[in-house]
Write a structure and sequence with these properties.
heterodimer; A: alpha/beta; Rossmann fold; six-stranded mixed sheet; globular; B: alpha/beta; GMP Synthetase, Chain A, domain 3
């Protein structure tokens, strides 16, 4: 392989001093970090460290009690997930959240909802501008299908697909929204080695071909170290490390968090 | 022979392309059928097509571009990837320049490919995508003579900045400039080619030893293509799906050669996973597949029918019985009583036509299978539901056709009559030899093999043993080196006998003996799945393979199968003496882990004979029982010993004079 010439740019998203609690439980405690344009950032940490909460804060599902989030330099306080989506943040879920009875193509088309400007009535008429719009969006979805190599399951109901393929369809739906920032919550959980390799390749290709910034949560350390440019480590709601994969691997606090501290 | 060059095929039938090379045929098609589709590819879910006129433009730009980056007459250009229009165009573009395309098997790994690339002395390569480019880059490290790499699909290749890696578009853009700067270059280059020139080098996959590069000339391919078109009266309106490897001679002739000569449109599937879906969408009229694919399709049908509702299942069973009794005769245009004809027509409306539609065979006029023996049940299934499936026998060295089954003369165990222009003879040792317009020029850089395979007067050894029957149809029985003789001089063709046995679903493997013996005898493995499901239905309890194999009812069934094979063999004077006199059912399944089968599940006859020497001896003695102890490897790798007392059964044999008497 040749050297990756991709440029990592300026800060795309900055989270600053985020604190999130549910009752007395502090899920996140004063966490700050940045996501830079075009990079692949991994968020890791033991169970209950607050990783998924962090993604939920970023895409506006949870509202932190304290702290600020700035996307493309614009700060926001309370924001609904659909606003985050309109701004260009898309995500996949730890437990697949697809429409099981719908085909792969239809599921991916739902990712284009925000791009479809015509009203429900127009769409029901399926004529003139609505038809044109549908065709344009279908074309984009077909490019996503081609990109993810899922042509053979285009018309298959998602519920009938094996788990690894469902994950791929979910990634396809997120890609259909043409996101600037893609949040992936454990994209490789429950996959076998071959499926993981495929998924890694797709994540790297998305990043490379479209320049999409990616933040992902993952437990497989091999994968994390291989594909990410930078790693943020959370433990008990606090950030304990932030740096290149090699630096994080050598960090004493990270080793303690994962392996436990001996009490001598 | 292929020496003389002439406007091949031009006189064969009106409407065919005129020209003695593929570039000339392309330009002729562009002139006469310029706005008709030449090739299609499914992309982004839609069939995209290119007309003959557009293909000519694409090829022109590409050929000039290849010339601009240094491809010259006599150079080799390797082509690797799935069936894609651009890969086919690269063949034509190279041929314009007098360069020789060398298609490679796309699934091969770099180490396998490096032999071919180096042996062919390829200077250029067209690779479909990143995967193939990576293979070629790794070959280039040890073989720097591979100068330029061109890729079709740019995905993932944006960071490959080496100056010798080009995108297809860039080469075409260079070509358009080159064309503008050198007017007349393209036309001169096309005119310089002739029918005797090398068109392509196809490497045979080579089950033994290194692959050999079969050199075929334009005359070989174009004459053979035209002969095939005339034989099956193919038209310019045929629909063909190109999905078999481009490095295989069949794809080259059906999807490239015949398309250029007859002018029909070839479609490339969206991806290798979607072939069956695309097949159904496209509904080809002319289709080729190895027996394995027809077998897989049939299995899917069977499974889906078993899951269907009761009414559908009963209808399917009822009408399939009718199809079996008269379907093939109707297809062959033979007389069938009106009543049966009407029932068949009803079945066609209710079952056969929808079934053909589901399989993608709605519009099929002609389907071929070749490569290995096809089970008569599978063959008859397709023919009985109205798919005109036929067998052919061919080889790369023949530019495909050696024999073909003509319409209306379909016998399941023959491969048909000599193809037009092809002569066939059977050598004294039983080996089939042929001579004809498609006979290859030589093996590339391998004069010894060429001399060993092709005689001075153009006869080619096939390595297969067979004979022409009374109707002039060729019957292939085995690889020539495996064919032996019984002590009475009768022919002994083990694979032929084994295949006949294995066509029974109850028999999984068979090993036949008889070379330099007094009579033929066999080991048999039952098929645990098929026999096991019989046992389940009939409440026969069994604990192991061995126990099931020893069941007297199973023995009786196997005996009836063996006797059915014997009755079949007895009808043929040449094979009548190799009827199976005695057989036994083995106490264990033959297994690759024990070295009895190869990894591709072919019986290692010699090894089995040595391992079970006592059993073989018992088959040729008067004993009716034999004790055996065998070491075997279990699935977890442990070894153990199986002991058994095997019964040896005498099977009834048939004299030639009583062919139609029923066995007991």
């Amino acid at each position: 392989m040749t050297e990756n010439t991709r440029k990592i740019g300026n800060t795309l998203l900055r989270v600053d001093d985020i604190t999130l609690s549910f009752g007395g439980v502090h899920a996140l405690n004063g966490v700050s970090f940045e996501i830079k344009e075009h990079e692949i950032l991994a968020i890791i940490g033991p169970n209950g460290a607050g990783k998924s909460s962090m993604l939920n804060v970023i895409n506006g599902f949870y509202h932190p009690q304290k702290g600020t989030i700035a996307f493309e330099g614009r700060e926001r306080k309370r924001m609904r997930p659909h606003v985050a989506a309109e701004q260009g943040i898309a995500r996949t879920f730890q437990n697949i959240a697809l429409f099981k009875g719908m085909s792969t193509l239809d599921n991916i088309m739902t990712g284009r909802m925000l791009k479809m400007k015509r009203s429900f009535l127009w769409q029901a008429l399926y004529w003139g501008p609505a038809l044109k719009e549908e065709i344009e969006n279908r074309e984009f979805c077909e490019k996503v299908i081609d990109f993810l190599e899922i042509q053979a399951i285009r018309k298959t109901p998602v519920g009938k697909l094996p788990y690894g393929l469902q994950k791929r369809v979910e990634l396809g739906r997120a890609l259909a929204a043409e996101p600037r920032l893609l949040l992936l919550d454990e994209p490789m959980a429950g996959m076998n080695v071959e499926e993981k390799e495929d998924m890694c390749r797709f994540i790297l290709d998305v990043n490379d071909e479209f320049g999409t910034t990616i933040a992902l949560i993952e437990h497989d350390m091999g994968v994390v170290m291989d594909i990410s440019d930078r790693v943020v480590v959370l433990d008990y709601g606090r950030k304990i490390a932030d740096g290149s994969p090699d630096a994080v691997r050598a960090n004493g606090e990270v080793i303690d968090a994962y392996l436990g501290v001996s009490h001598e | 022979m292929s020496g003389a060059s002439s406007a091949a095929g031009a006189e064969a039938a009106p409407g065919l392309g005129v020209g003695d090379t593929f570039p000339k045929l392309l330009l002729d098609m562009a002139k006469r059928r310029g706005d008709r589709p030449a090739i299609r590819e499914k992309e982004y879910g839609i069939w995209q097509s290119w007309t003959w006129g557009e293909v000519a433009q694409e090829v022109r730009a590409l050929a000039c571009g290849l010339a601009a980056i240094g491809l010259k007459r006599g150079d080799k250009i390797a082509i690797i990837g799935d069936n894609r229009p651009r890969l086919y165009w690269t063949m034509t573009a190279a041929q314009v320049l007098g360069a020789v395309p060398v298609p490679l098997y796309q699934d091969s790994v770099a180490t396998e490919l490096s032999f071919v690339v180096e042996h062919a002395e390829a200077r250029f390569v067209l690779a479909e995508d990143q995967e193939q480019v990576d293979k070629m880059l790794s070959i280039r490290e040890s073989y720097p003579k591979l100068e330029q790499i061109i890729y079709d699909n740019p995905r993932g290749l944006r960071n490959y900045t080496q100056e010798f890696v080009h995108s297809f578009e860039d080469v075409q853009a260079l070509g358009r400039d080159y064309d503008a700067a050198h007017p007349g270059f393209f036309d001169t280059a096309v005119a310089a080619g002739g029918g005797g020139d090398t068109a392509i080098i196809l490497y045979t996959s080579g089950t033994t030893g290194q692959p050999k590069g079969v050199v075929l000339s334009f005359d070989n391919l174009i004459k053979t293509a035209a002969n095939g078109i005339a034989f099956d009266s193919l038209r310019a309106e045929e629909e063909v799906l190109a999905y078999l490897p481009m490095a295989w001679v069949g794809d080259h002739l059906f999807s490239y050669g015949q398309s250029y000569v007859a002018g029909f449109c070839v479609s490339c599937p969206e991806s290798s996973d979607t072939v069956l879906l695309d097949l159904r969408e496209l509904g080809p009229t002319y289709f080729f597949a190895p027996p394995r694919i027809f077998e897989n399709i049939l299995t899917t049908v069977t499974i889906r029918m078993e899951d269907a509702g009761g009414l559908k299942r009963r209808m399917f069973k009822y009408f399939m019985k009718i199809a079996k009794s008269c379907g093939t005769r109707i297809l062959d245009g033979k007389p069938v009583p009106l009543g049966e004809r009407l029932l068949y027509a009803l079945g066609d409306i209710l079952i056969f036509a929808p079934l053909r539609n589901t399989l993608g065979f709605s519009r099929i006029r002609l389907a071929y299978t070749a490569g290995e023996a096809i089970g008569p049940d599978i063959f008859d299934f397709y023919r009985s539901i109205g798919v005109n499936l036929k067998q052919l026998y061919g080889s790369t060295e023949a530019s495909v056709y050696i024999t073909l089954q003509p319409d209306g003369e379909i016998l399941p165990d023959t491969v048909g009559c000599p193809a037009p222009g092809v002569e066939i003879k059977v050598a004294e040792d039983g080996e089939v030899m042929f001579r004809g317009p498609g006979v290859f020029v030589e093996y590339f850089k391998n004069p010894e093999e060429t001399a060993a395979t092709k005689t001075a007067d153009g006869w080619v050894h096939t390595g297969d043993a067979g004979f022409l029957d009374d109707n002039g149809h060729l019957r292939i029985i085995d690889r020539a080196k495996d064919v032996g003789h019984l002590n009475d001089g009768g022919l002994f063709a083990p694979k032929y006998i084994e295949n006949k046995l294995k066509f029974f679903p109850d028999i999984k493997e068979a090993v036949a003996y008889g070379h330099e013996r007094d009579y033929c005898a066999a080991f048999i493995n039952i098929d645990l799945e098929a026999v096991g499901s019989w046992a389940e239905r009939n409440n026969v309890a069994y604990a192991s393979y061995q126990e099931l194999a020893e069941n007297p009812d199973v023995m009786k069934t196997i005996q009836s199968h063996v006797e059915a094979v014997n009755r079949d063999l007895s009808q043929d004077p040449r094979l009548a003496s190799s009827q199976i006199n005695r057989f036994l059912v083995l106490h264990k399944e033959l297994d690759p882990d024990d070295g009895e089968l190869t990894r591709t599940r072919k019986v290692r006859r010699g090894f089995v004979a040595d391992k079970y020497e006592s059993l073989v001896e018992a088959l040729y003695s008067s004993k009716d029982q034999v004790h055996v102890e065998t070491e075997m490897t279990f699935e977890d790798g442990r070894k153990g010993t199986v002991k058994a007392d095997l019964r040896i059964i005498e099977a009834r044999t048939f004299g030639q004079t009583e062919p139609l008497k029923m066995a007991g």
